[in-house]
Amino acid sequence: MSHSEGQNRSLALMLIVISLITTGLLLTPLIAVATPTPTQTPTSTTSSTSSSSPESTTEPTITLAVNGGSLSSSESITVGSSPDLALSVSVNGSEELTAVRVAVDNETRRIYNTSTLNQTLTRELDIPLRNGAHTIDIKTTTQRRSPSTERTHTNNTSTETALKTATSTATVTSTSNDNAAGQATATPTSSPTDDAHETQNSSIQTYVDSFTIIVDTAAPLVQYTSPFESSAAAPPPDRPTVTNSTVMLAGTFQDRSAVTAVQITHIYEYDFAGRSQSTRSVYRFSPTNGSFTRPLVLGVGENEITAEYTDRFGNIRRHEITIRLIDISAPQITLDRPIPSRVGYETLQIRGSVTDGVKLNRIDFLTPSGGTKRLLIQQGPEPTRERRSVSVSETVQLSPGRNYIQIDATDVSGNAREREATVFYDESIAPKISIESIAVSDSASRSPTVRATGRITREDIVDARIEIRNVEPENNESLIIQRSLTSTATNSNSNSNSTTHPETTQRRIQFDEELPLRNVTDPVLLRISASDTENDTESVTRQLSSITPSTERDSEDIDSPSSAMTTNTTPSSTALSTESTASPPSSSPSSSTSTPLGVTPIIGAICVIVFMSILLTRINR
């Protein structure tokens, strides 16, 4: 073979290899398109173990009877004594009980094992419960009866624990170990990861039911808040002292059950008229919102109080309290108005009240004639609410000259108070006029007015007037308005706002008058006058200055256009809204052009085959 022929053959082989590679690359898209791709569907990830999961089981039915009544799991009940307990546990036909444990306050009190169990357990629980709250846990272990469904696994096998209570408990496996006595002990097993060689039965299930029983055998605790204070844990003080006969016995309760009844007995013993006497009061009521309040009226000295508080289970708290009332304050005498020292009338009205913090015993009224009028008759020291305050209303006849008046008040403890006064009766005293205030109003919305307040005092007032007078040249006066203060207004041109209240006809007049000042010019005089039956006359005159007459207006005021017009200077704002046309982003076309499947690879393959045929032909030549 010549050298040139060898080169030609090498070149031919290289071209064949390149052609094959090109043909493969061209046919690859065709094969990829022609071959369907399976759709991947999402699947949930589940963890599988070499052991099959245990078959579904049914929770056992557990009933705890408390004094004959059924108590559900996680419920609580309050009883008044240690209750009678009965336990009932049952499972369905495919399961059997292997162990039942009864614990009170986390202390195991009863255990029942396979030697005594089958599918039901009914027992009277003779477990005494003391006063307080107790938690009873019933732990039940069950196992499927069919041997075909029981599977024993080694490693990575755990016992399923179902809790029907809100509290979490550790997962344990109860293994029944029969001893000589036929008893079984619930032994918690370690975690599967702790002992890989421990064999457990996946069909064993453990359930825990919890019950709460509150035993209330203690009497209620009382915390007093009035008239003394004490803590709930301590009894009330032995002999509390008060200084007021009216007190409030009040307090709050602390008890495991509600206090339903309160009884308060008040006994007061005293001596009166040489004999020993006593009073007894009993109050029964139901407290509200865990508290109570009861008003008591005490007598001077010792008051025996017996309080009994009963809860709904009949537990009774009894307190015996001696409240001592001491009286060191004298009565108070209060008059509606002070007694005047000088008057011009022959009768005087005295009104007021006499009060005491404990009890009034006697009230005497000494008259100017030297007599004594007893307003309150003496009584014993027994508690009496009505004798704490007495009203006084007396009319005193005065004689010309000095008149002595005195009020004496004494309480049951002998504390005394007196109020005395000397009144001089002068027949020549003219009526006294007192002006308390004068006010002129010149409001722009109405005509000016003048308002005068005051009083007139004198015995036998027969006439009293208020006048508005105008002062003319040469000091001559002209009457503008006149109104009587002993009757209704006589001026028909004015609207009377009179609040005149004669306390006693023809004796005292309290006036409050408002008069118009229309068409009145300065100067203006306000005059008040009064006269009695003896023609003694008194008058008081005041000059009113700075009176600006106001022009009369129509009954309906019309506002001027300038005042009625409101200029709106708020500039109108032009809201410029810029519209931004947001063209949706154009989706860029795919860079690859869709070509009919198989056209390009086939053409390329044909070209390669033609090229190889030509090449081989030339090599053979």
Give the end-to-end Cα distance, rounded to a whole number of Å.
Answer: 14 Å
Low-pLDDT ranges: 37-54, 148-200, 488-505, 548-597
- Number of helices in the DSSP assignment: 3
> What's the number of domains?
4
Q: What coarse outline follows from CA principal-axis ratios?
A: flat
Give the amount of beta strand, in percent. Answer: 35-45%
Q: SS-based structural class?
A: mainly beta
Radius of gyration equals 57 Å
- Average pLDDT confidence is 74
Specify the biggest β-sheet.
6 strands, mixed
Into which percent range does the helicity of residues fall? under 10%
InterPro entries: Ig-like_fold
Biased composition (Polar residues): 182-201, 538-550
Biased composition (Low complexity): 156-181, 486-500, 569-597
Region (Disordered): 35-61, 136-201, 486-516, 529-597
